[in-house]
Amino acid sequence: MSEWKSKNRHKYLLQYHLILVCKYRKKMMTPKISEDIKQLSFEICKRIGVDIKTMETDKDHIHYMIETNPTMSISEIVNRIKSYTTYHVWRLDRDIVKRYIYYDVHKFWTDGYFVCSVGNVSEKQLKKYIENQG
Predict the structure, then answer these.
(1) Where on the phi/psi map is residue 25: left (φ > 0), alpha (ψ -120 to 50), or beta?
(2) Model's pTM, two decimal places?
């Protein structure tokens, strides 16, 4: 279980479940691309101060469990991960990606993403805690 973080006058623990899907739901996550995406994800997240707790790929998407601080929005994190991984996957695995993306548009991910927060307590526990205040 993760520990609460402290910064100046606030405490936080922000964890998210994030899913990114390959463009057109193409099954592009070959073993080579999958390993490259994981390595690239670790690189960019370390650079921007996001901690990847766990990640795993399937044939057409990747799941992340990330932890971040309150100064960076989830949309900014997603944008950085998608941009960095797309650029480098096209550079490293161009021949593989071109089998799935038929024109040279240098895209890899769909425009959207799925994200939800991950908490230390269940919704029921939190509701009970809030109701019993005062």
Answers:
(1) left
(2) 0.88
Domain definitions of the chain by residue range: 5-131
Of 24, 44, 45, 22, residue with least CA distance to 34: 22
> Nearest Cα to 19, choosing from 73, 90, 82?
82
Residues 6 or more apart in contact with residue 105 via CB below 8 angstroms: none
Nearest CA among 92, 106, 14, 30 for reference residue 62: 30
- In the block, which residue shows the tokens 């990114």? 20
How far apart CA 84 and CA 15 sit, in angstroms, is 21
| pLDDT tens digits along 36-84 | 999 999 999 999 999 999 999 999 999 999 999 999 999 999 999 999 9
* Residue 122 main-chain phi, psi, to 5 deg: -75, 165
List the CATH code of the domain at 5-131.
3.30.70.1290
d(CA 62, CA 22): 8
Are 14 and 120 within 8 A, CB to CB? Answer: no
Render 68-134 in DSSP notation, one character per residue. Answer: E-TTS-HHHHHHHHHHHHHHHHHHHSHHHHTTTS-S-----B-S--EEEEE-SS-HHHHHHHHHT--
